[in-house]
């Protein structure tokens, strides 16, 4: 959807060139000009668009700055090879970290509230729409479970460590992540979030420093905040994840008590550490005797090929506490996760018992039965493929509708995108304005204890692609452009 350039009125219109630049970009996107093609001369385009030659020149310069066009002496402007922005990865911080108190809880709660409002287009929360979940299969299991003669089996506490059959299934499936726990090594929790909180409580105390990737999932930051611990944000790269060098330096400099990493398709970057980096982190942390809390909640959602190994696969000393759940793959509503706690396992089991006695019995039985039925791997193959397509579609729409200079991650697993907009686009402002238009997004500052990432947003691609969703993205792009031009105030 190209923006219409306003007619030139002779008044000073400082932002007109941005509209012109945008129109040219849309033409390139639509394939009217291919890499290496010469763009129309300044005069020709000025006549076509009814704007001044200076405006066209400014627009071309802008596209040159954005890496889309290149000037050639005495010849004009040409489309650069590989000109379009989706290949550009958003930047993350490379600043040396220092510990900080987290304060994202209130903002996160406001955002959660917005995501529960009816009629919202849900691009904010990293939650798969029900459409993508194996609901038929689960319903079949649920009907069976609810038969009157089965009721006697689930009206009881399933005390820690939790349902035997489910733990057997989880232990068996861990093979594909490269480690082999016994069912006794598994504790069932209320989702991955509880697994993370119990692990932090087992390892660290108030005031301790916890190293995390930056940006990181806000639930991890809030868990640390609620336990009055401090966060040390270690830079992470959109492709390769946490910087092992920066982590090594931080370990020398600070008394880090634990480290929390999502090594495969992390939230929000979608980064996946390679095997070498996973092994290096396992060794580095073991050397410093610093436990790793590994969050592998997206590990089964590789778009192509086998699922990546967990860092736990390289753990020789019980130093890695492995946390995961079925929230991204089977159903977030069931609230079933697990932890394999290494040398902290017993303590975590006891803390689970203290926290809430048990995870709901029918939910565990339902999942145990679902996993035993064998259809899960087929379902996973389909859904991974679907998420790859959803990500491609959402990326294309962002390229089409968002301001020039926008950068997007290219994750090879999971279903979320991290987007860096031009500096003038304030993510919190965009969040509030978008909410007024019934569109929920997750603003960047939520993913940092220091409220960095002020012009970044995270979008969820696990939402059925409808005309309403497409126009929501178009509208979001327009709103971002409005912020860029300074025409939205709040
Ligand atoms: C990286 C990460 N860890 C943990 C969680 C929480 O998972 P659960 O819903 O299983 O508690 C989420 C949910 O968004 C997540 O993205």
Mean pLDDT: 90
* Helical content class: 25-40%
Indicate the CATH class of the largest domain. Alpha Beta
CATH homologous superfamily grouping of the largest domain = Type I PLP-dependent aspartate aminotransferase-like (Major domain)
Shape field:
globular
Q: Major sheet: size, sense and barrel closure? A: 9 strands, mixed
> Structural class, from helix and strand content?
alpha/beta
* Structure ligands: pyridoxal-5'-phosphate
Cα gyration radius (Å) = 25 Å
How far from one another are the termini?
26 Å
CATH architecture of the largest domain, please?
3-Layer(aba) Sandwich
Poorly predicted segments: 1-14, 83-87
The number of distinct helices, counting runs of at least 4 residues, comes to: 15
Number of strands: 17
How many separate domains? 3
* Annotated CATH topology of the largest domain: Aspartate Aminotransferase, domain 2
General description of the model:
- With 490 residues, the protein is α/β, with parallel strands linked by helices.
- The chain folds into three domains: 16-83, Arc Repressor Mutant, subunit A; 87-94 and 378-485, Aspartate Aminotransferase, domain 1 (Alpha-Beta Complex), CATH 3.90.1150; 135-376, Aspartate Aminotransferase, domain 2 (3-Layer(aba) Sandwich).
- The protein has helices at 16-29, 42-49, 53-65, 105-115, 135-145, 164-173, 191-203, 218-226, 244-253, 275-287, 345-356, 361-372, 376-401, 427-436, 467-485, and strands spanning 69-72, 76-79, 100-101, 121-122, 187-189, 209-214, 230-237, 241-242, 256-261, 292-295, 320-325, 337-340, 407-408, 416-420, 439-440, 442-443, 456-460.
- The longest helix is centred in the last third of the chain and has 26 residues, at 376-401.
- The protein is globular, with a radius of gyration of 25 Å.
- It starts with 15 loop residues before the first helix and ends in a 5-residue tail after the last helix.
- It binds pyridoxal-5'-phosphate (PLP).
